RNA sequence: GGCCCCAUCGUCUAGGCAGGUCUAGGACACCGGGUUUUCAACCCGGCAACAGGGGUUCGAAUCCCCUUGGGGCUACCA
């Protein structure tokens, strides 16, 4: 997002490159999700997958297939700047443990002599792992000039020869990004602070490859979550695990069924042995009625946040425009964006403030746009309101002034289109509003007045209800609340006058009758 | 453990680079009050911070050092 803001500000190009060199983690769906998320946020790339451009292909896996990295590996090998290694994972593990026992940082020990072709052939024939490591120049200090942090020095003796080509033939991130940044003529590398330690190595590689002038490095602060560490995808499964444990291990079988997993898998998950895929986690949470913290962009979408809110809010974590503005449009953000105003310290993701931002954006966004977002939202959460037409939806949105999320609007409006038999009466609301005191009696009076009305507008309904309240010598709430519970089952809905107008006369009367019939025998004195 | 980064209200931050104008500003949260047909929204008011210790200086939130605390990296992950 910051790369995009910066490119837009400078009139440069924003390139989307998919760094999918880890075969274990990167799947087509994950890639698609990233692109969907970006597009939902309104972040369009000038070059990249599905868009094309002069610097493609844009998937590192595809670039690897085309042999783009081969020549660079060979060049380093030929110049003795890189060498083959045959260590197994176990051997490396032992080396690390030794270093730890000596309370020293692990630095790979370079062999006295680099393996020759024959040895490589032999190792390959033997089926053991063959990797290529970069021989880090032993020249003392590497200085990274970082835009936010100034000059950061590293002792090259502590960097250690890192792997640039894995045994599966894929380049590592640290190697591929250097080659690709050069080939794609990347001018600014804007990324999280977690990459700062990678930079001296990348810089050294850049020089060893003879790529010339370095790109500008910009390491931004990390956003941490309430629980401490950096915001991570793991938080969702962790939250679910906690919730299942709290349930006391009951219903594991049903849970597994709901998630489409085996009981063993769920058990292993609860015991912390394994983590199922996100869709499984999501459906189990839905089944268990557990609210998981939003982590991925799509989670926020499903919770009813606007893309405008997310871009605005996220941009203000680790950056600010230098004046007192907070609620800003994407256009205002790109106009104001400035690398020098990036914050150095980490920031905490505050959901309360996010909600406040969303409330504000719902208030100021253009009506048509909001309607569009609302319809998108209704689709993903499979709301009964998908059946409603634009006119009705717009009315609902307008009546729901002050809503915090799209979920608010949906929740308060859905009763309008729900079939009568699907209205769920909230027990607490029924007791408090209908059964106690004059509730049902007031409802009968409301019903009678309503049935006599010819013009069924929110204005006329308001006049009637206010008049009735006065007549009975009570506050408006005494007549409005029973009506509200009668038509929607709860005490939370759109404003009552608009609600009744939207429901229309016939439906309103029928729901009142249903309610009276259902609860009159239960009335308390 | 090693290396690196960071440090202003509970949170996001302004101010710091060009020390005095900072009795430290804003926003969110919180607390009190108002408005009110529910939930929200809205209006008014309030609480609340320069992590600690040394320096430098006439003067330090601002510059330097140490301590402490937080975070990151320490992978054939990115």
What distance lies between the first and last C-alpha atoms, to the nearest angstrom? 61 Å
Q: Give the proportion of residues in helices.
A: 40-55%
Name the poorly predicted regions: none
Rounded mean pLDDT is 92
Give a verbal description of the structure.
The chain has 525 residues and is mainly α. Helix content is 50%, strand content 7%. It has 25 helices and nine strands. It has helices spanning 2-10, 28-41, 60-65, 70-78, 89-101, 117-126, 173-183, 199-208, 235-246, 252-259, 263-270, 278-288, 297-302, 307-315, 330-336, 351-364, 367-380, 390-399, 406-413, 427-435, 439-452, 458-472, 476-488, 496-503, 505-519; strands spanning 82-85, 131-134, 141-146, 150-155, 163-165, 188-192, 216-220, 223-224, 347-348. The strands form four sheets. The protein has a three-stranded antiparallel beta sheet with strand order 1-2-5. Strands 3-4 form a two-stranded antiparallel sheet. A two-stranded parallel ribbon has the order 6-7. Helix 8 (199-208) links the parallel strand 6 and strand 7. Helix 10 packs across helix 12 (278-288), helix 20 (427-435) crosses helix 23 (476-488) and helix 21 (439-452) packs antiparallel against helix 25. It starts with a helix and ends in a 6-residue tail after the last helix. The structure holds one RNA strand of 78 nucleotides.
């Amino acid at each position: 997002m910051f790369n995009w803001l910066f490119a837009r500000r400078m009139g440069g190009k924003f390139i989307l490159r998919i760094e999918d060199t880890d075969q274990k983690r990167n799947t087509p769906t994950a890639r698609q999700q990233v692109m969907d998320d970006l597009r939902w946020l309104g972040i369009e790339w000038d070059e990249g997958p599905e868009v094309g451009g002069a610097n493609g292909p844009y998937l590192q896996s595809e670039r690897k297939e085309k042999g783009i990295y081969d020549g660079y590996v060979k060049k380093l090998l030929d110049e003795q700047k890189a060498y083959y290694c045959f260590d197994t994972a176990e051997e490396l593990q032992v080396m690390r443990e030794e270093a730890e026992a000596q309370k020293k940082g692990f630095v790979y020990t370079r062999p006295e002599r680099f393996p020759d072709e024959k040895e490589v052939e032999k190792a390959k024939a033997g089926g053991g792992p063959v990797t290529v490591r970069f021989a880090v120049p032993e020249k003392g200090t590497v200085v990274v000039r970082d835009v936010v942090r100034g000059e950061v020095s590293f002792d090259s003796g502590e960097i250690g020869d890192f792997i640039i080509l894995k045994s599966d033939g894929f380049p590592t991130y640290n190697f591929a990004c250097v080659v690709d940044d050069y080939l794609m003529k990347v001018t600014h590398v804007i990324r999280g602070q977690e990459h700062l330690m990678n930079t001296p190595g990348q810089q050294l590689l850049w020089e060893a490859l003879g790529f010339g002038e370095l790109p500008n490095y910009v390491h931004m602060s990390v956003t941490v979550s309430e629980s401490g560490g950096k915001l991570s995808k793991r938080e969702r499964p962790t939250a679910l695990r906690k919730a299942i444990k709290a349930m006391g291990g009951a219903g594991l079988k049903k849970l597994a069924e709901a998630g489409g997993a085996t009981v063993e898998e769920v058990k292993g998950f609860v015991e912390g042995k394994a983590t199922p895929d996100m869709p499984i986690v999501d459906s189990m949470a839905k089944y268990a009625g557990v609210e998981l913290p939003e982590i991925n962009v799509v989670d926020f979408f499903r919770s009813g946040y606007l893309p405008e809110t997310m871009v605005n809010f996220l941009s203000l974590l680790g950056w600010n425009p230098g004046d007192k503005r907070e609620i800003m449009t994407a256009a205002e953000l790109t106009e104001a964006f400035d690398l020098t105003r990036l914050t150095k310290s980490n920031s905490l993701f505050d959901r309360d403030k996010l909600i406040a931002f969303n409330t504000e954006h719902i208030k100021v966004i253009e009506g048509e746009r909001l309607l569009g977002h609302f319809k998108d939202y209704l689709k993903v959460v499979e709301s009964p309101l998908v059946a409603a037409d634009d006119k009705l939806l717009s009315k609902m949105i307008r009546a729901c002034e002050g809503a915090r999320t799209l979920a608010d609007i949906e929740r308060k409006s859905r009763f309008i289109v729900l079939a009568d038999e699907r209205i769920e009466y909230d027990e607490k609301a029924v007791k408090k509003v209908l059964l106690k005191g004059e509730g049902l009696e007031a409802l009968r009076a409301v019903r009678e007045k309503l049935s006599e009305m010819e013009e069924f507008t929110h204005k006329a309904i308001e006049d009637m209800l206010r008049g009735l309240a006065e007549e009975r010598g009570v506050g408006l709430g005494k007549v409005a609340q029973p009506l509200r519970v009668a038509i929607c089952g709860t005490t939370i809905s759109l404003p009552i006058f608009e609600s009744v107008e939207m429901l229309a006369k016939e439906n309103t009367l029928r729901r009142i009758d249903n309610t009276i019939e259902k609860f009159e025998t239960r009335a308390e004195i």
